[in-house]
Protein backbone atom coordinates (compact mmCIF):
# COMPACT_ATOMS: atom_id res chain seq x y z
CA UNK A 1 0.00 0.00 0.00
CA UNK A 2 1.40 3.41 -0.91
CA UNK A 3 1.38 6.24 1.64
CA UNK A 4 -1.34 8.03 -0.32
CA UNK A 5 -3.70 5.15 0.45
CA UNK A 6 -3.22 5.42 4.22
CA UNK A 7 -5.85 7.10 6.35
CA UNK A 8 -4.71 10.27 8.14
CA UNK A 9 -4.60 10.36 11.93
CA UNK A 10 -8.02 11.13 13.39
CA UNK A 11 -8.69 14.51 14.98
CA UNK A 12 -8.97 12.86 18.40
CA UNK A 13 -5.33 11.72 18.18
CA UNK A 14 -3.89 15.06 17.05
CA UNK A 15 -2.34 17.76 19.21
CA UNK A 16 -4.80 20.68 18.96
CA UNK A 17 -3.09 24.09 18.65
CA UNK A 18 -5.30 27.21 18.73
CA UNK A 19 -4.42 30.75 17.61
CA UNK A 20 -6.12 33.50 19.64
CA UNK A 21 -5.96 37.28 19.79
CA UNK A 22 -7.53 40.52 18.63
CA UNK A 23 -8.82 41.10 15.13
CA UNK A 24 -6.23 41.94 12.50
CA UNK A 25 -3.14 40.98 14.52
CA UNK A 26 -2.18 38.49 11.83
CA UNK A 27 -3.41 35.16 13.23
CA UNK A 28 -4.41 33.84 9.81
CA UNK A 29 -1.18 35.06 8.20
CA UNK A 30 0.80 33.39 10.96
CA UNK A 31 -1.08 30.12 10.48
CA UNK A 32 -0.31 30.25 6.76
CA UNK A 33 3.36 30.83 7.59
CA UNK A 34 3.47 27.97 10.10
CA UNK A 35 1.82 25.51 7.72
CA UNK A 36 3.48 26.90 4.58
CA UNK A 37 0.02 26.81 2.98
CA UNK A 38 -2.76 29.28 2.27
CA UNK A 39 -5.08 27.79 4.88
CA UNK A 40 -6.90 30.95 5.98
CA UNK A 41 -8.10 33.93 3.97
CA UNK A 42 -5.94 36.98 4.71
CA UNK A 43 -7.09 40.57 4.40
CA UNK A 44 -6.21 43.96 5.85
CA UNK A 45 -9.85 44.28 6.85
CA UNK A 46 -10.47 43.38 10.49
CA UNK A 47 -12.80 40.43 11.06
CA UNK A 48 -11.97 38.48 7.88
CA UNK A 49 -11.96 35.18 9.81
CA UNK A 50 -15.56 34.59 10.88
CA UNK A 51 -15.58 30.94 12.01
CA UNK A 52 -12.81 28.77 13.44
CA UNK A 53 -10.74 27.33 10.60
CA UNK A 54 -9.17 23.90 11.16
CA UNK A 55 -6.09 22.60 9.38
CA UNK A 56 -4.86 19.05 10.11
CA UNK A 57 -1.25 18.50 9.13
CA UNK A 58 2.01 16.79 10.02
CA UNK A 59 4.27 19.22 11.88
CA UNK A 60 7.68 17.81 12.66
CA UNK A 61 8.74 16.84 15.24
CA UNK A 62 5.22 16.85 16.72
CA UNK A 63 3.70 14.50 14.19
CA UNK A 64 -0.03 14.93 13.50
CA UNK A 65 -1.46 18.24 14.77
CA UNK A 66 -4.64 20.24 14.23
CA UNK A 67 -4.27 24.01 13.96
CA UNK A 68 -7.40 26.04 14.77
CA UNK A 69 -7.47 29.65 13.57
CA UNK A 70 -10.09 31.75 15.36
CA UNK A 71 -11.92 35.02 14.81
CA UNK A 72 -10.75 38.02 16.83
CA UNK A 73 -11.99 37.80 20.39
CA UNK A 74 -12.53 41.58 20.42
CA UNK A 75 -15.16 41.37 17.66
CA UNK A 76 -18.05 43.84 18.01
CA UNK A 77 -21.79 43.96 17.38
CA UNK A 78 -24.35 41.17 17.53
CA UNK A 79 -22.67 39.13 14.80
CA UNK A 80 -19.27 39.85 16.34
CA UNK A 81 -20.46 38.45 19.66
CA UNK A 82 -21.46 35.21 17.92
CA UNK A 83 -18.04 35.00 16.23
CA UNK A 84 -16.26 35.69 19.50
CA UNK A 85 -18.38 33.09 21.32
CA UNK A 86 -17.45 30.43 18.76
CA UNK A 87 -13.80 31.34 19.10
CA UNK A 88 -13.93 31.09 22.89
CA UNK A 89 -15.55 27.66 22.58
CA UNK A 90 -12.32 26.50 20.91
CA UNK A 91 -10.58 27.04 24.28
CA UNK A 92 -12.40 23.93 25.51
CA UNK A 93 -10.55 21.66 23.10
CA UNK A 94 -7.06 22.99 22.44
CA UNK A 95 -4.01 21.37 24.01
CA UNK A 96 -1.72 24.28 23.24
CA UNK A 97 -2.40 27.98 22.64
CA UNK A 98 -0.69 30.67 20.57
CA UNK A 99 -1.62 34.14 21.81
CA UNK A 100 -0.95 36.44 18.87
CA UNK A 101 -0.38 40.15 19.58
CA UNK A 102 1.17 42.98 17.63
CA UNK A 103 4.64 43.89 18.76
CA UNK A 104 4.36 47.03 20.86
CA UNK A 105 0.60 46.67 21.39
CA UNK A 106 0.30 44.54 24.54
CA UNK A 107 -2.48 45.68 26.87
CA UNK A 108 -5.30 44.70 29.26
CA UNK A 109 -7.08 42.69 26.54
CA UNK A 110 -4.04 40.45 26.06
CA UNK A 111 -3.55 40.15 29.82
CA UNK A 112 -7.15 39.01 30.18
CA UNK A 113 -6.85 36.48 27.38
CA UNK A 114 -3.63 35.15 28.86
CA UNK A 115 -5.36 34.78 32.24
CA UNK A 116 -8.17 32.84 30.54
CA UNK A 117 -5.67 30.46 28.93
CA UNK A 118 -3.81 30.00 32.21
CA UNK A 119 -7.08 29.44 34.08
CA UNK A 120 -7.80 26.51 31.77
CA UNK A 121 -4.26 25.14 32.20
CA UNK A 122 -3.56 25.53 28.49
CA UNK A 123 0.19 25.80 27.81
CA UNK A 124 0.68 29.01 25.85
CA UNK A 125 3.27 30.62 23.60
CA UNK A 126 3.01 34.36 22.89
CA UNK A 127 3.76 35.37 19.30
CA UNK A 128 4.49 39.09 18.84
CA UNK A 129 3.64 39.48 15.18
CA UNK A 130 4.50 42.22 12.63
CA UNK A 131 8.15 42.28 13.63
CA UNK A 132 8.84 43.65 10.13
CA UNK A 133 6.84 46.79 10.98
CA UNK A 134 7.77 47.29 14.63
CA UNK A 135 11.11 45.55 15.09
CA UNK A 136 12.30 48.15 17.58
CA UNK A 137 9.27 48.00 19.89
CA UNK A 138 9.97 46.53 23.32
CA UNK A 139 8.53 43.16 24.26
CA UNK A 140 6.74 43.13 27.63
CA UNK A 141 8.17 40.87 30.36
CA UNK A 142 6.16 37.65 30.53
CA UNK A 143 7.36 35.58 33.45
CA UNK A 144 7.41 31.85 32.86
CA UNK A 145 6.13 32.11 29.27
CA UNK A 146 7.74 31.54 25.91
CA UNK A 147 7.54 34.74 23.80
CA UNK A 148 8.74 35.00 20.20
CA UNK A 149 8.96 37.99 17.87
CA UNK A 150 7.73 36.90 14.44
CA UNK A 151 6.81 38.27 11.06
CA UNK A 152 4.22 36.27 9.16
CA UNK A 153 5.10 38.44 6.14
CA UNK A 154 8.82 37.69 5.79
CA UNK A 155 9.04 34.52 7.93
CA UNK A 156 11.22 36.03 10.68
CA UNK A 157 10.94 33.97 13.87
CA UNK A 158 8.59 31.32 12.46
CA UNK A 159 11.10 28.52 13.04
CA UNK A 160 11.73 29.86 16.55
CA UNK A 161 7.95 29.77 17.13
CA UNK A 162 7.81 26.10 16.10
CA UNK A 163 10.61 25.34 18.57
CA UNK A 164 8.81 27.26 21.33
CA UNK A 165 5.62 25.26 20.65
CA UNK A 166 7.56 22.03 21.01
CA UNK A 167 8.97 23.11 24.37
CA UNK A 168 5.57 24.29 25.64
CA UNK A 169 3.52 21.30 24.44
CA UNK A 170 2.02 19.19 27.25
CA UNK A 171 4.42 16.34 27.95
CA UNK A 172 1.64 13.80 28.51
CA UNK A 173 0.43 14.25 24.94
CA UNK A 174 3.51 12.41 23.75
CA UNK A 175 3.03 9.63 26.30
CA UNK A 176 1.54 6.49 24.85
CA UNK A 177 -2.16 6.11 25.64
CA UNK A 178 -3.61 2.66 25.16
CA UNK A 179 -7.13 1.91 24.07
CA UNK A 180 -6.95 -1.79 24.99
CA UNK A 181 -3.47 -3.18 24.26
CA UNK A 182 -2.55 -2.93 27.95
CA UNK A 183 -5.43 -5.34 28.64
CA UNK A 184 -4.32 -7.90 26.03
CA UNK A 185 -0.87 -9.46 26.64
CA UNK A 186 1.37 -10.06 23.61
CA UNK A 187 0.32 -13.21 21.78
CA UNK A 188 -3.11 -13.26 23.43
CA UNK A 189 -6.42 -12.85 21.58
CA UNK A 190 -8.84 -9.92 21.68
CA UNK A 191 -12.22 -10.73 20.15
CA UNK A 192 -13.77 -7.60 18.63
CA UNK A 193 -17.50 -7.86 18.00
CA UNK A 194 -18.54 -5.45 15.23
CA UNK A 195 -22.19 -5.62 14.16
CA UNK A 196 -22.73 -4.65 10.53
CA UNK A 197 -26.17 -3.02 10.49
CA UNK A 198 -27.94 -0.04 8.93
CA UNK A 199 -25.93 2.42 11.01
CA UNK A 200 -22.52 1.02 9.98
CA UNK A 201 -20.75 3.16 7.34
CA UNK A 202 -20.91 1.48 3.92
CA UNK A 203 -17.59 -0.23 3.20
CA UNK A 204 -15.97 1.10 6.38
CA UNK A 205 -15.66 0.51 10.11
CA UNK A 206 -16.38 3.18 12.68
CA UNK A 207 -13.33 4.90 14.14
CA UNK A 208 -13.18 3.21 17.61
CA UNK A 209 -13.20 -0.19 15.88
CA UNK A 210 -10.31 0.81 13.63
CA UNK A 211 -8.43 2.24 16.63
CA UNK A 212 -8.97 -1.02 18.54
CA UNK A 213 -7.61 -3.23 15.76
CA UNK A 214 -4.54 -1.04 15.38
CA UNK A 215 -3.90 -0.89 19.13
CA UNK A 216 -4.10 -4.68 19.50
CA UNK A 217 -1.59 -5.05 16.67
CA UNK A 218 0.69 -2.40 18.20
CA UNK A 219 0.70 -4.42 21.41
CA UNK A 220 1.63 -7.63 19.56
CA UNK A 221 -1.76 -9.14 20.35
CA UNK A 222 -4.07 -11.08 18.04
CA UNK A 223 -7.31 -9.47 16.86
CA UNK A 224 -10.24 -11.72 15.96
CA UNK A 225 -12.99 -9.63 14.33
CA UNK A 226 -16.51 -11.09 14.18
CA UNK A 227 -20.14 -10.10 13.94
CA UNK A 228 -22.38 -10.81 16.92
CA UNK A 229 -24.13 -13.72 15.21
CA UNK A 230 -20.77 -15.47 14.66
CA UNK A 231 -19.44 -14.92 18.18
CA UNK A 232 -20.26 -18.33 19.65
CA UNK A 233 -18.65 -20.16 16.73
CA UNK A 234 -15.59 -17.89 16.90
CA UNK A 235 -15.11 -18.53 20.62
CA UNK A 236 -15.43 -22.28 20.18
CA UNK A 237 -12.79 -22.23 17.44
CA UNK A 238 -10.15 -20.84 19.81
CA UNK A 239 -7.84 -23.27 21.63
CA UNK A 240 -8.19 -21.23 24.81
CA UNK A 241 -10.15 -18.34 26.19
CA UNK A 242 -9.54 -14.85 24.79
CA UNK A 243 -7.92 -12.19 26.98
CA UNK A 244 -10.75 -9.75 26.24
CA UNK A 245 -14.00 -9.43 24.32
CA UNK A 246 -15.01 -5.96 23.12
CA UNK A 247 -18.41 -5.30 21.62
CA UNK A 248 -20.38 -2.50 20.12
CA UNK A 249 -22.55 -1.32 23.00
CA UNK A 250 -25.83 -2.00 21.22
CA UNK A 251 -24.95 -5.73 21.09
CA UNK A 252 -24.13 -5.88 24.81
CA UNK A 253 -27.04 -8.13 25.75
CA UNK A 254 -26.41 -10.92 23.23
CA UNK A 255 -22.63 -10.75 23.63
CA UNK A 256 -22.87 -10.99 27.42
CA UNK A 257 -25.00 -14.09 26.97
CA UNK A 258 -22.51 -15.77 24.63
CA UNK A 259 -19.25 -14.90 26.42
CA UNK A 260 -18.29 -17.08 29.41
CA UNK A 261 -18.44 -15.15 32.67
CA UNK A 262 -14.76 -15.80 33.30
CA UNK A 263 -13.79 -13.82 30.16
CA UNK A 264 -13.35 -10.03 30.59
CA UNK A 265 -15.87 -8.17 28.44
CA UNK A 266 -16.53 -4.48 27.74
CA UNK A 267 -17.51 -2.14 24.89
CA UNK A 268 -15.76 0.20 22.48
CA UNK A 269 -17.61 3.14 24.01
CA UNK A 270 -16.38 2.35 27.53
CA UNK A 271 -12.83 1.94 26.20
CA UNK A 272 -13.13 5.44 24.67
CA UNK A 273 -14.24 6.83 28.03
CA UNK A 274 -11.07 5.43 29.60
CA UNK A 275 -8.97 6.61 26.64
CA UNK A 276 -10.18 10.19 27.13
CA UNK A 277 -9.53 10.05 30.88
CA UNK A 278 -13.18 10.43 31.91
CA UNK A 279 -14.07 6.87 32.95
CA UNK A 280 -14.32 7.46 36.71
CA UNK A 281 -16.57 10.51 36.30
CA UNK A 282 -18.78 8.74 33.78
CA UNK A 283 -19.03 5.62 35.96
CA UNK A 284 -20.25 7.86 38.77
CA UNK A 285 -22.71 9.51 36.41
CA UNK A 286 -24.24 6.19 35.40
CA UNK A 287 -25.65 5.75 38.91
CA UNK A 288 -27.98 8.70 38.22
CA UNK A 289 -29.93 6.41 35.88
CA UNK A 290 -31.40 4.79 38.98
CA UNK A 291 -33.01 8.08 39.97
CA UNK A 292 -34.62 8.98 36.64
CA UNK A 293 -38.36 9.60 36.86
CA UNK A 294 -41.10 10.22 34.33
CA UNK A 295 -40.71 13.53 32.52
CA UNK A 296 -37.04 14.02 33.46
CA UNK A 297 -34.94 15.57 30.70
CA UNK A 298 -31.89 13.71 29.43
CA UNK A 299 -29.33 15.27 27.07
CA UNK A 300 -27.81 12.91 24.50
CA UNK A 301 -24.57 14.35 23.09
CA UNK A 302 -23.06 12.97 19.89
CA UNK A 303 -19.56 14.08 18.93
CA UNK A 304 -20.10 13.35 15.23
CA UNK A 305 -22.76 14.61 12.82
CA UNK A 306 -23.94 11.37 11.22
CA UNK A 307 -27.34 11.07 9.55
CA UNK A 308 -29.75 9.31 11.97
CA UNK A 309 -31.16 5.94 10.94
CA UNK A 310 -34.32 4.08 11.92
CA UNK A 311 -32.56 2.24 14.74
CA UNK A 312 -30.16 5.06 15.65
CA UNK A 313 -28.43 4.23 18.90
CA UNK A 314 -28.54 7.75 20.36
CA UNK A 315 -32.06 8.67 19.26
CA UNK A 316 -33.88 5.33 19.37
CA UNK A 317 -32.14 2.45 21.16
CA UNK A 318 -30.55 4.29 24.07
CA UNK A 319 -33.74 6.25 24.94
CA UNK A 320 -35.71 2.99 24.76
CA UNK A 321 -33.38 1.19 27.18
CA UNK A 322 -33.32 4.14 29.59
CA UNK A 323 -37.12 4.39 29.60
CA UNK A 324 -37.40 0.65 30.20
CA UNK A 325 -35.07 1.04 33.17
CA UNK A 326 -36.97 4.06 34.51
CA UNK A 327 -40.35 2.45 33.86
CA UNK A 328 -41.70 5.80 32.69
CA UNK A 329 -41.40 8.08 29.64
CA UNK A 330 -38.46 10.50 29.69
CA UNK A 331 -37.76 13.59 27.61
CA UNK A 332 -34.67 13.51 25.39
CA UNK A 333 -32.77 16.33 23.69
CA UNK A 334 -29.97 15.57 21.22
CA UNK A 335 -26.99 17.70 20.22
CA UNK A 336 -24.31 16.91 17.66
CA UNK A 337 -20.75 17.86 16.83
CA UNK A 338 -19.43 20.97 18.57
CA UNK A 339 -22.85 21.89 19.96
CA UNK A 340 -23.17 21.59 23.71
CA UNK A 341 -25.60 23.66 25.81
CA UNK A 342 -24.26 26.50 27.92
CA UNK A 343 -27.09 25.97 30.42
CA UNK A 344 -27.18 22.36 31.62
CA UNK A 345 -29.51 22.99 34.57
CA UNK A 346 -32.67 21.54 32.88
CA UNK A 347 -31.10 18.09 32.67
CA UNK A 348 -31.09 15.22 35.14
CA UNK A 349 -28.44 13.37 33.12
CA UNK A 350 -26.10 13.84 30.17
CA UNK A 351 -25.27 10.75 28.11
CA UNK A 352 -22.30 11.28 25.79
CA UNK A 353 -21.04 9.12 22.94
CA UNK A 354 -17.48 7.79 23.05
CA UNK A 355 -16.39 11.06 21.36
CA UNK A 356 -14.03 9.39 18.92
CA UNK A 357 -14.23 12.51 16.73
CA UNK A 358 -13.24 14.81 19.59
CA UNK A 359 -10.07 15.00 21.62
CA UNK A 360 -9.32 14.34 25.27
CA UNK A 361 -9.32 17.99 26.39
CA UNK A 362 -12.72 18.62 24.83
CA UNK A 363 -14.20 15.58 26.57
CA UNK A 364 -12.73 16.52 29.93
CA UNK A 365 -13.97 20.10 29.48
CA UNK A 366 -17.52 18.82 28.97
CA UNK A 367 -17.22 16.57 32.01
CA UNK A 368 -15.98 19.56 34.02
CA UNK A 369 -18.90 21.72 32.84
CA UNK A 370 -21.38 19.05 33.88
CA UNK A 371 -19.69 18.71 37.26
CA UNK A 372 -19.78 22.49 37.79
CA UNK A 373 -23.50 22.49 36.94
CA UNK A 374 -24.18 19.56 39.27
CA UNK A 375 -25.43 17.42 36.38
CA UNK A 376 -24.16 13.80 36.19
CA UNK A 377 -22.62 12.69 32.88
CA UNK A 378 -22.09 9.16 31.61
CA UNK A 379 -21.56 7.62 28.18
CA UNK A 380 -23.39 5.33 25.80
CA UNK A 381 -21.70 2.09 26.77
CA UNK A 382 -21.95 2.70 30.51
CA UNK A 383 -25.59 3.79 30.26
CA UNK A 384 -26.54 0.74 28.21
CA UNK A 385 -24.66 -1.67 30.48
CA UNK A 386 -26.34 -0.13 33.55
CA UNK A 387 -29.79 -0.28 31.96
CA UNK A 388 -29.32 -3.93 30.96
CA UNK A 389 -28.00 -5.01 34.37
CA UNK A 390 -24.46 -5.89 33.22
CA UNK A 391 -22.70 -2.77 34.56
CA UNK A 392 -20.27 -4.53 36.89
CA UNK A 393 -19.34 -7.09 34.28
CA UNK A 394 -18.62 -4.40 31.68
CA UNK A 395 -16.25 -2.72 34.13
CA UNK A 396 -14.47 -5.86 35.31
CA UNK A 397 -11.54 -5.43 32.84
CA UNK A 398 -10.56 -2.17 34.58
CA UNK A 399 -9.03 -2.79 38.02
CA UNK A 400 -8.53 0.96 38.47
CA UNK A 401 -12.28 1.50 38.87
CA UNK A 402 -13.06 -1.45 41.14
CA UNK A 403 -12.10 0.35 44.36
CA UNK A 404 -13.89 3.44 43.07
CA UNK A 405 -17.03 1.39 42.45
CA UNK A 406 -16.88 -0.07 45.94
CA UNK A 407 -16.58 3.41 47.44
CA UNK A 408 -19.56 4.65 45.45
CA UNK A 409 -21.72 1.85 46.83
CA UNK A 410 -20.46 2.14 50.40
Compact overview of the structure:
This protein is of the alpha/beta class and 410 residues long. It has 14 helices and 14 strands.
Provide the CATH superfamily of the largest domain: P-loop containing nucleotide triphosphate hydrolases
**Domain tally:** 3
CATH architecture label name of the largest domain: 3-Layer(aba) Sandwich
Topology, number of strands: 14
Category by helix and strand content: alpha/beta
Helicity level: 25-40%
Number of helices: 14
The rounded Rg comes to: 24 Å
Q: What is the top-level CATH class of the largest domain?
A: Alpha Beta
- Overall average pLDDT: 86
User: Which segments are poorly predicted (pLDDT under 50) over 5 or more consecutive residues?
Assistant: 1-6
Q: Helix and strand succession?
A: EHEEHEHEEHEHEHEHEHHEHEEHEHHH
How much of the sequence lies in strands comes to: 15-25%
Describe the main β-sheet briefly: 6 strands, mixed
Measured between the Cα atoms of the first and last residue, the distance is 54 Å
Backbone shape? globular
State the strand order across the main sheet: 2-3-1-4-5-6
- What name does the CATH topology of the largest domain carry? Rossmann fold
Amino acid sequence: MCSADMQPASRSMRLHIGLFGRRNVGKSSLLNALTRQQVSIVSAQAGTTTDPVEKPMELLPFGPVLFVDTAGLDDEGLLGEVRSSRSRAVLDRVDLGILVAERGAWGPFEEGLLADLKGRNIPTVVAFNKHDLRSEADLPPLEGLEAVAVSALDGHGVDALREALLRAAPADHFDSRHLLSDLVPPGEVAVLVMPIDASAPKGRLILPQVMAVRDVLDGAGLALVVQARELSRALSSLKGLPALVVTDSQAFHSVARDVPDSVPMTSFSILMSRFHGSLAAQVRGAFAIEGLRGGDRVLVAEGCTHHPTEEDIGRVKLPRWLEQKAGEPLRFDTVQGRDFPVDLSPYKLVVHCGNCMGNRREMLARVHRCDAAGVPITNYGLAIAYSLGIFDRALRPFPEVQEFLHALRA
